Amino acid sequence: MTDQDALLERYSAPIREQLGRQSDAIDRMATAIADMARAIAVSEEKHSNTADALARIGNRIDDHEKRLRELERSDAEQGLFVKHAGKFTWTAVGIAMSMVFAFLFGGVK
Question: Mind listing the pLDDT tens digit for each residue in 49-59?
Answer without folding.
Answer: 999 999 999 99
